[in-house]
Request: fold
Amino acid sequence: MKKWIMMLAMVLAAAGAEAQVKFETRSTDAVREMAVKEGKLVFIDLYASWCPPCRMMERHVFSRKDVGQFMSERFVAAKYDTDDATGKALMKKYGNGAIPLYLIFDTQGELLGRMQGASSADEFMANIRKILKM
Reply:
């Protein structure tokens, strides 16, 4: 019985992992190259592990299947901790100090739009649609 419960838990965990937004942690250049190859835009999540709104977005927005599908169709997504070098550099260039901060770039590196703060999944996707003029 225990073996069956563990197997079921592993299957459910794997299914849940597929449903969420897949974030890359490679360099910004590698992420841009992936976006060019896939014909997608670049989405960057600037966060910190100690940030409650960042954790809320991870749990309640980026974990949702509909958000994962929406994002994977349009973006190569990456996330960078603002306490690390890449995150600090991006925050210095594009931010005002408040996180979470979400940046959308074309494959040439031009900033198309930015969103700041936590939101519901529906509001998050609506804001992206607005930036992309969808």
About this structure: The beta strands are 23-24, 41-47, 75-81, 101-105, 111-116. DSSP finds six helices and five strands in the chain.
